[in-house]
Amino acid sequence: MSTQHPIEKQEFTITVYTENQIGLLNRIAIIFSRRKINIESLNTSPSEIEGIHRFTILIHETEEVVRKVASQIEKQVEVLKVYYNTNEDVIWQEMALYKVPTDVIAEKALVERLLRENGARAVVIRKDYTVFETTGHREETENLINVLQPYGLIEFVRSARIAIIKGSEGFHRKLQEFEKREPGHDVVENEYLNKGDKVFTM
Amino acid sequence: MNLMLTKEKQAPELLDKVKTISGAEALLIALLEEEVDTIFGYPGGAIMPIYDALYDYRDRLNHILVRHEQGGIHAGQGYARSSGKAGVVFATSGPGATNLVTGLADALIDSTPLVCITGQVFAHLLGTDAFQETDIVNITTPVTKWNYQVTDASEIPDAVAKAFHIARSGRPGPVLIDIAKNAQIQKFDFKGYTSCKHIRSYRPKPIVRQEYIQQAAELINNAKKPFVLWGQGVMLGSAEQEFKTFIEKAGIPAAWTIMGAGALPSDHPLNVGMLGMHGNYGPNVLTNECDVLIAIGMRFDDRVTGRLDKYAKQAQVIHLDIDPSEISKNVKATVPVWGDCKETLPMLTELIEATAHTEWLEKFRRYEQEEIKEVIQDELFPATGEITMGEVIQQLNELTKGEAIVVSDVGQHQMVACRYAKLNHTRSNITSGGLGTMGFALPAAIGAKFGALDRTVVAVIGDGGFQMTLQELGTIMQSGVDVKILILNNQFLGMVRQWQELFQDKRYSFVDITSPDFVTVASGYGIAGKSISEREGLKEALQEMLSHKGSFLLEVMVTKENNVFPMVPQGSSVSEIRLK
Q1: In this complex, is the C-beta atom of A35 within 8 Å of any C-beta atom belonging to chain B?
Q2: CB count, 10 Å around CB of B235?
Q3: Residue limits of the Thiamine pyrophosphate enzyme central domain (chain B) (predicted)?
Q4: To probe the interface with B, which of A7, A77, A178 has the most B CB atoms within 10 Å?
């Protein structure tokens, strides 16, 4: 963990590998709400392994709190593994969609420049409205809102963060370990052994 | 259906024995396979098919009809705590199921293995606000270790297998299976029952890391003033003997949380007493003087630590626990020993040098002498005035000689019972520790007796708590269970009154509680009873209660405004413990 100030709040991306089980989302969500922690974004998706789900949860908290929350999540029966990372440790993206009136945008904006500068593309162009899409960090998707606002932004939506852990080798090898009756040291890790590791694992 | 079980290979001969049975019957077969002998429950519409199947299993499964589902689940807890097995509880949907919530929360925080089965409306009615429909899986998610809703009979064997495995393994806890009525009725091809041994996403215990054992042993070997704190984990891990061997070899004074009481006999020379808010003087003060603090199977509850930023700051902390989320949760561990103490303690014992910390132990004894002089003497042996709670427990000790199971409720009498009850054996102190559930003791005592039929069970209860679940006298009446009920009646909600006296200028706000004539109430249930208020008859009355054949209710009128001391006021450090 590269965090210098464990008591300062910062963004943490929590990655949770789970079984596909009804009710697990609630079980995970209440771990945050019980502690009055706001989930900034939450994404559930398949993972690199068929049948294993991957939650990506973004919260703004101190490392101390994140560590405790992560261990509470990992304690849930259907949770295989939890990782938490600071922004330096992950590659992440969010996707945003913007609906604007076509006539205004076509008349007043230099559409091409606008799209180029913001790395956006038009998904739908209709007579009455146009939908742009952009993918990037929060500031980037935020920026296009500001640009489009003067042209009468009708609708805006942004997806949750999805993130790839830079130092992760994926979950295949770990899962094989998990499936063994007597999991090896590698799976039954003791978090304190990994203190110096680039990627914190619990 | 995706239960993710790794199952034992199905024996070929079982395949010939495939038979078509109902989900309800499959449940009962599964319970028998898990060696369940006792069920605490209450029927209702949505669980009727299970009760109908139970009619044919009455000879093998002893179902105790309780008077309220909360009573049922506390009885299940008492059974689990006295027997070391998982308690099993049945309830119907809706209100039956929601009445379990307090017990589930209690069992989760006190790590008690329970398997609760609730009936649910027909699957096709889920979400329609059907009669007695409630979303019990979501309601109980924060208070169960695991829960699951069954909507198809074929899920039942695996779900039950998984439930027992999860409830009992690792850090034990309550699980709940909600079974839709159609699944109870539905017939399916039952291929035999296979117990669950492994769930890939669940690691109940780790492989112990030798390096931490070595680090811990090194700290202990170099310690001048080591101090052991133990909790219920020692009993949950059945590691009483390993624990005793460890502290005896290391010669370390050891103190207990109320959940840990009894794992080491009360009169063991290294047992220095109780920790926490109403614990003993020495253990609290010396927590802030020890150099190495060894916590075993305990979780540093705020009632144990008092003010955290002034808790054992001078000490190196070794924390042995099976639940990794407890390590460094409240108190930062210098050496985290994640593992089952049944394994870790012998590993540690092997590496430590045999020592005696005579002078250090002597220090505990000096504090004890002061506590005896300032508090204990007057509490246990008052010469004049009204009866104190402490002397009742003292007299009880003299009669039971520490052989009884003491079940306590919540409040002043609980602190007195836990402080002073003599316990010779493990699994002898049953109380609601983490949740502090008033009304726990009466039903828990019923369950405790069913879990340990050869032992005397004494339920010590306050006048307030008794009135929360006194309907369970009906369960005693009908089942004929032998429970000794000892009501310590101070005519107050005593612990709240004590706080109002000490911290709120004696503004006694709604703590003056009126009680019925408890002896008459008991007699209405056919339970013998007696009420006394004079010291002279105390011992005889206790003797009468203990030697009475069957249940007996003894009410002892105790002094009204006694306070439990010592006390670590909330927000204070453990070393700021008050003797008066």
Answers
A1: no
A2: 24
A3: 213-348
A4: A77
Q: How far apart are CA A56 and CA A73, in angstroms?
A: 13
**Within a domain: A139:** yes
Query: Does residue A50 share a domain with residue A14?
Result: yes
Phi/psi of residue B133, each to 5°? -90, 130
User: How long a stretch of residues is chain A?
Assistant: 202
A192–B207 CB contact, under 8 Å: no
Are residues A38 and A138 located together in one domain of the fold? no
Partners of B578 in the β-ladder: B567
Contact at CB, B200 and A80, closer than 8 angstroms: yes
Q: Which of residues 307-326 of B touch A (CB under 8 A)?
A: 323-325
At residue A3, the pLDDT reads 46
Terminal Cα distance for chain B, rounded: 60
8 Å CB contact between B118 and B91: yes
Domains of chain B: 5-199 (3.40.50.970), 210-362 (3.40.50.1220), 386-557 (3.40.50.970)
Task: List Cα–Cα distances, B406 to B430, B456, B463, in angstroms.
Answer: 6, 9, 17
Q: What's phi and psi for B402, nearest 5 deg?
A: 80, 10
Q: For residue range B396-434, what is the model confidence (pLDDT) as tens digits? A: 999 999 999 999 999 999 999 999 999 999 999 999 999
Phi, psi of B467 (to 5 degrees): -75, -10
Domain-located, residue A151: yes
Tell me whether residues A184 and B207 touch, CB distance under 8 A: yes
The answer to whether residue B127 neighbours chain A at the CB level (below 8 Å) is no
B553 bridge partner residues = B485, B529
Q: How far is B105 from chain A (nearest CA, A)?
A: 14
Question: Which contiguous run of DSSP H or E holds residue A11?
Answer: strand A10-18
Q: What is the pLDDT of residue B18?
A: 81
DSSP structure class, residue B528: E
User: How large a percentage of chain A has pLDDT more than 90?
Assistant: 67
Q: Is B341 left (phi over 0), alpha (psi -120 to 50) or beta?
A: alpha
Q: Which residue of B has its CA nearest to A179?
A: B200
Q: Is ipTM beyond 0.90?
A: yes
Query: A66 with A35, same domain?
Result: yes
A75 and A114 both lie in a single domain = no
- B443, B206, B502: which is closest to B343 by C-alpha? B206
In terms of domains, do A177 and A153 share one?
no
CB pair distance less than 8 Å for A75 and B138: no
**Would you name the residues of B annotated as active-site residues?**
69, 131-132, 181, 495
CB contact under 8 A, A178 and B325: no
Q: Is B212 on the interface with A (CB under 8 A)?
A: yes
| Inter-chain CB proximity A79 and B201 less than 8 Å | yes
* Cα–Cα distance, A94 to A160 (Å, whole number): 6
**Which residue segment(s) compose the domain that A66 sits in?**
10-89+164-188
Q: How far apart are the first and last CA of chain A?
A: 12
Cα of B333 vs its chain's centroid, Å: 26
A30, A74, A190 ranked by CB distance to B336: nearest: A190
Domain count, chain A: 2
For residue A27, which residues of chain B lie inside 8 Å, CB to CB? 141
- Residues B462-478, mean pLDDT to the nearest whole number: 98
On whether the CB atoms of residues B40 and B66 are closer than 8 A, the answer is yes
